[in-house]
Amino acid sequence: MPEGDTVWQAARRLHEALAGNALTRSDFRVPQYATVDLTGRRVLSTVARGKHLLTRFEGGLTLHTHLRMEGAWKVFGSGERWRGGPAHQIRIILGTADRDAVGYRLPVVELLRTTEEEQAVGHLGPDLLGPDWDPDRALANVLADPARQLGEALLDQRNLAGIGNVYKSELCFLLGVTPWLPAGALPEDRAEKLPGLAKRLLEENRDRPVRQTAGLSRRQATRPPWPDLFVYGRAARPCLRCHTPVRVADQGDGSQERPTYWCPTCQSGPAPAAGSPQRWRDRYPRRTG
């Protein structure tokens, strides 16, 4: 599932491509909205709310979409060949005189009244990249269930909106605790740092083409590939701080387990329970050392 910074970038691309222009093409390829035609309506804005996208149109309508694991919005110039997947994966096309916004594999497509947006996103906690950010409330939400594993609490969008699996692993590393630590056992000084650190990670990466948390410049690396992240995607590779091999295991409730990376030396706290799957390996090449 995309992180909050990725969704923020998608909202910016859609806003820059569509806002202020009238639609010349409107094609909803989902059964519920197959007869909907927004042609002629002016696009007012696209904003991110956590991992949700809200595209607003004149006349008081909002298109709510969510990317989840496989969805993507692509923007193309007039006459440009679309590259985002086969045609049967297209769910929405919104076109203007010089731009086409094409939604591929979107698992959530919902058209609602703008006044009713809270029905779609009202359950979310404070948005790390939004105007409603409230660090005290976010921390209180995370600590509300003291027995819950910190990694799971961070992923719960009802607590704070925007953290995905990458930032869960990286944030726990920077706090020096494992993702399996009960939230209530997080030392007070580290708990106080959590909201500000989470916000800074997303803010510093929302304009980057490649996400980076390690803060290492290319001059500090002896050879490529350059390290961008401390632990995520670095299974069996040396920790950038202590050189202990980074470990990875599944974390979740069984219905939605996520690969979770940590350094057993730099991070204190519980490891996965005995017998927990530790089978994940990097599936895609990453620009990490």
From TrEMBL:
Q: Which organism is it from?
A: Streptomyces rameus
What protein family is recorded? Belongs to the FPG family.
- The EC number(s) attached to this protein equal 4.2.99.18
Identify the enzyme class: lyase
Keyword tags: DNA damage, DNA repair, DNA-binding, Glycosidase, Hydrolase, Lyase, Metal-binding, Multifunctional enzyme, Zinc, Zinc-finger
* Database matches in PANTHER family: ENDONUCLEASE 8
Basic and acidic residues biased stretches: 279-289
For this entry, the protein name equals DNA-(apurinic or apyrimidinic site) lyase
Q: InterPro entries from the xrefs?
A: DNA_glyclase_Znf_dom_DNA_BS (IPR015887), FPG_cat (IPR012319), FPG_N (IPR035937), H2TH_FPG (IPR015886), Nei2_N (IPR044090), Ribosomal_uS13-like_H2TH (IPR010979), Znf_DNA_glyclase/AP_lyase (IPR000214)
One Pfam family, short name? Fapy_DNA_glyco
Xref: SUPFAM superfamilies: Glucocorticoid receptor-like (DNA-binding domain), N-terminal domain of MutM-like DNA repair proteins, S13-like H2TH domain
Q: Where is this region: Disordered?
A: 261-289
Tell me the ranges covered by the Formamidopyrimidine-DNA glycosylase catalytic domain, including all copies: 2-103
The record lists the catalysed reaction(s) as:
2'-deoxyribonucleotide-(2'-deoxyribose 5'-phosphate)-2'-deoxyribonucleotide-DNA = a 3'-end 2'-deoxyribonucleotide-(2,3-dehydro-2,3-deoxyribose 5'-phosphate)-DNA + a 5'-end 5'-phospho-2'-deoxyribonucleoside-DNA + H(+)
The FPG-type domain covers 230-268
The answer to whether UniProt assigns keyword Isomerase to this entry is: no
